[in-house]
């Protein structure tokens, strides 16, 4: 049974259900009304600014009929219906997450144990079946990366992958970039050396939040791709030494790229980025692009470098890595704000040709939410 009580002269509502009381302020409820005078019917955007709602708004009466809560607000004398489920889904009178570095329920951190269950989708299936696409995108969002198999091997096939969920983000590298490697090359520019795990473009603000790497040719031995969950690495650092976690999250590093004429890119962000309430929202780690660190006080610089070194050791730990080989027609999408990627070294003879591009995570999350909403509507 659900009951409603109004408190503090109508300043807030308490909903008692399943043995728990959840409170909502009157001004919050009025601002979040979904009637046609407050919200546009087509897109749900607000038609009113907060200044249009009386500052002394209060709840004059409250009632419930089944799953519908009806409130009347003073001084407007306006009645609004709310689905009980919507109110409970959007409740803010909850226990807050404590401590810096927490992650949301939709994020699952991982280590090398994920090797047995790498999130994989079939290109043909995700291209033709919205449910398969939603499942694959959900895994990319949850784990920070996902692999696609059985795709075409034609030039710029990676653009078709991006079309599944969003749009290419063009940079000074163009709409896409080529990754061509020859083993035992005549030109050292085409090296088969391995690369340390890193996030791309930390010198941009904002960074490209997704990267797509698509394999068109792979005849060389070795060269496996590797991914490391930066969030799990930060969690390990915090468990080992809270002071080290704090110094990397509370002080900015500086990153810089000036490798082309007319291009000077700079950013100033922490290696471990937290939201104001302590949620872990980003990792920037790229030793090649780290500029001089100047935003750490003198008496904390030794601690900062000890923390930076240890975070790198954790990232390099084989127990943290998931590796897989990309064959022609295969690709992977990686959350560049969270998951570090690398490449193992090559041996023997052969060539390797990949194409890469950047996109943004908001497009992927929007596509996923739309697919999930459509699936839910169909189920109802």
Automatic annotation (TrEMBL):
The protein in question is named Gamma-butyrobetaine dioxygenase
The UniProt entry's sequence similarity note says: Belongs to the gamma-BBH/TMLD family.
Q: Please list the GO terms describing molecular function.
A: dioxygenase activity
Q: Which organism is it from?
A: Parasedimentitalea denitrificans
Report keywords, A-Z. Dioxygenase, Iron, Metal-binding, Oxidoreductase
Cofactor list:
Fe(2+)
Which ranges of the sequence are coiled-coil?
A: none
Keyword Transport attached? no
Q: Name one Pfam family in it.
A: TauD
Against CDD domains, the record matches this protein to:
CAS_like (cd00250)
InterPro entries the record matches: AlphaKG_dependent_hydroxylases, GBBH-like_N_sf, TauD-like_sf, TauD/TfdA-like
Outline the extent of the TauD/TfdA-like domain: 121-358
SUPFAM superfamilies, alphabetized = Clavaminate synthase-like (SSF51197)
